[in-house]
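Re: that chain you flagged

S.,

Sorry for the slow reply, it's been a week of failed gels. I finally had a moment to sit down with the sequence you sent. For the record, here it is as I used it:
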Amino acid sequence: MRRPTAGLGQAVFWAIFMSLIGAFASWPRVHYFPQGDAQIKMSFAHGSQRKSACRKLSSEEIAKLPAKERRPNTCDRERLPIRVQLALDGKTLYDETLQPTGLSRDGPARLYRKFVVQSGSHNLIIRLRDSDRVEGFDHEQSVDVALRPLQNLVVEFKGDEGMFHIH
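Prediction finished late last night. Pasting the structure tokens below so you have them in one place:
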């Protein structure tokens, strides 16, 4: 026969246990992101120009190739590195040279970075060089942005359009 105090003791135990779980689930409060700041995310994968230009094959070189591999041009697979700069209000946040991916260095260079910045109005300048030029950049964009607290601003580069998308 079951004692009435055993059921009451069990109910008290489970009430305390559930209260502890509830307390630890909501305390201490953890903030993963500073409350008054905003975030800029820069993300893209872009293939730069090839390291060397394609070369036209002579008729003798074409004839030496197997029938299924005959083509008028031959191209090196390796691509050039990409240089990326991100500046906020004249202060450089990011300035790196990205290497192409792949075993033959023929894949796109990839970038995904997050920057925590103060909210408010800012001037954002993004630059990208994907050619063999030594100075300057092939793509450059300057935009004024108004960042709200906890806002995420995404910067992408669309290679087929040759421009940055900021949203």
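What I noticed first: The CA atoms of residues 127 and 151 lie 22 Å apart.

Talk soon,
D.
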